[in-house]
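Onboarding guide, step 5: your first structure request.
Type a short instruction followed by the sequence, for example:

Predict the 3D structure of this protein.
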Amino acid sequence: MAGPVRQKYDALAAAGELQPDPAQIAVADRLDALAADLTEARPRGFFRRKASPPPQSLYIFGGVGRGKSLLMDMVFEAAPLPLEEKRRVHFHAFMQEVHAEAHRWRTMEPKDRARDGRYDKTAGDDPAPAIAGAVTGDARLLCFDEMQVTDIADAMILGRLFEAMLKRGVTFVATSNRPPRDLYKDGLNRQLFEPFIDMIETRFDVLELGGDLDYRRRCLEGRDAYYAPLTDAARAQMDAAWAQLTAGGRVAAETLLVQGRELVANRTALGAARFHFDELAAAELGPGDYLALAGRFHTFLVDEIPVMGPEKRNEAKRFVTFIDAIYEAHCNLVASAAAEPGALYRLGTGAFEFERTASRLAEMQTPAYRAQDHRISAGAASPAAAE
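The system replies with structure tokens like these:
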């Protein structure tokens, strides 16, 4: 009998929400085996004298749009654990937490560290194993979406951190666009990072989700992605696009840490995010916020872009900055608006500069633009300082 991941996958295929794919089915079956192993494995205290070994961790890699995040969502939901014992988080956001915790640990007085029950007091002066319990919490399953390593601060701490978390009995499911051997490729002092790659290759089950079909792009093929004016039909088209892009995924809020501040995206799933125009342009956001969003999400839905006059020059300026950020990152855009791009902001400070934004809004609807891969800047959302 098929497990819960495969059952969910087959149901989506039967409903026409995804196209059956042998590579995806193989990964779904492996994820069901992991969910079953989590049922068998129990930590110390569940009527056992010793903790049973955790299931083998998984590293799933493949091209953009291959369904990695969708399958991860399925196993997260299927894992037979209480919510406090499983966590799904974008890898970059997790590393921000790690660096913030390491900074806190380093700046504490030794006596305060000793009193803090979240830290491993046997780790000595190395923050990586010392903070492993603090960043893991009660989680027995950690699902990391989009593992990528571009920052030397991440590269230098990962091996020791993961070793400590594995010793704590944590099982990982990680997705990435790259095979393990390509992580931190050409990075500074990469030889110091290679033991972490060796760990992934020897202690994780590495699965390739092969194939050339980008299901994210397929969702947008043949679909208009700019709906004007704002009518009930335009709103229905936006809802239909969101439903198709996130089919089978878990829609939830996500918090990004940007220069020490929290930036909340209220509706996200499978690498896509949906915003009302006011959430992006009426709020006091800046270039760093938009770069962080562009680095995290590959597709944006923006509802109800208004026609703006001189009184909305600040909103127009923020919108220009947002479009610049997602355009440079090759993100996809689906939008509803009160008018065509060239008529959105004709009068007011910056109206001349807005003409470039109107041109980019038009270009972002073309097949040539959509064919580009999402490009993530290493500095999109800087982690808290790590000394």
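Each response can be followed by summary notes, for example: The first helix runs from residue 4 to 14.
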